[in-house]
Amino acid sequence: MNYLIFGDIHVSQSSLKECKIIFKEIIDLCNKYSITHVISLGDNFNNNKPTASELNCLGEFIRGLGSRKIILLAAQSHESETVELSSVDIYGILSDNVKVVKEFKDGNHLYCGHFILSESNVNYGAKLSKEDFKNYIYCLLGHQHSYQIIKPNICHLGSSRYVSFSEANDKHKIVALITSYGEENEQIHFLSLKSPTKMVEFILNSNNSNELEEKNSKNPPKEALQDTILPKNGQVGKDTVNSNSSISQAQNPSNLSQIELLCQKLDKLDKNTKVKVKIMDFGSFRGFLPFVNKYSSKFETFKYETSFEVVSVDNQKCQSTEIKSFRESLSNYLKNNKIDPTITEILQKEIE
Q: Is a pLDDT exceeding 80 seen at residue 175?
């Protein structure tokens, strides 16, 4: 028997095209490695009331898996209406090949669940720790979207696609493959998916005029991925993920402004890239705003957010009793400063 395990694909209306491509890659891997069992670690959908198109997307994937045994974890976080009922139950009702569970246990060999542990990188009120799963050979968990090994036998597989920009540093989106399951020559592999849409986040800060900070899913993650989940013979598969740690700092070789350098980089990116620009000061916000429409039109996913303090005309921090909103602050700034009329018009439209 050969098992393929993946997690947290979060099928949504806006991601249907990407999810179908990822599902096809998973089916191709199943065919290539003669997979007999497929396990989804939960959050198959992004909400507990999926649309007909979202239901069909997962349904077509299940049909594409043919006669393989399929185990779907029904996560509490996104796809369960109550403790008992979830949006994936229908697949278990319609097909004897599909089993819908809250957790999966195979003796002391394999455990699959959808939650975090006290040792997880993303830990908000975890009730369990690695000690609760020390008797299993493998414990594979969903819910956390970035890959993490928790030695000696636990792995958060992470999401199967880039769902949020908190994952922009992730170099890989992966699936787990266990070959010769339960046999003497059993091995576990972590395979990098090729089809997830890449994600990149830029940080604009005019106080750092010679650098443009870039967080890019093409670059290595913060922590190296180590082969620490081992099969019984101590060997790992050839396709296991490895990387070194770093965050890219894109130097500005020609003294271009950050805005010019950012535009150059955005122009070179594939239109399918998921892009976010985080703006740390008002000067950068004012300089980049005229380009927002251009890049919103180019990329299917393009977001920008501001992260700077609102100040009054005399450069004093605004108290809530003085200025109630960013909109009011910006209106006052435009009113009391000599701003180019074209930029003023653009900014006024933004705050209307």
A: yes
Strand ranges, E, within 15-164: 37-40, 69-73, 98-101, 104-106, 110-114, 138-142, 148-150, 154-156
pLDDT recorded at residue 21: 98
Determine, yes or no, domain membership for 82: yes
Residue 187 and residue 259 in one domain: no
Residue 100 maps to which CATH number?
3.60.21.10
Rounded to whole angstroms, how far apart are CA atoms 118 and 124?
8
What pTM was computed for the model?
0.79
> What is the mean pLDDT of the segment spanning 300-313?
78
pLDDT (mean) for 77-94 = 90
C-alpha–C-alpha distance, residues 115 and 345, integer Å: 48
Question: In whole angstroms, what is the distance from residue 11 CA to residue 185 CA?
Answer: 35
Tell me: do 19 and 159 sit in the same domain: yes
Domain span holding position 88:
3-197
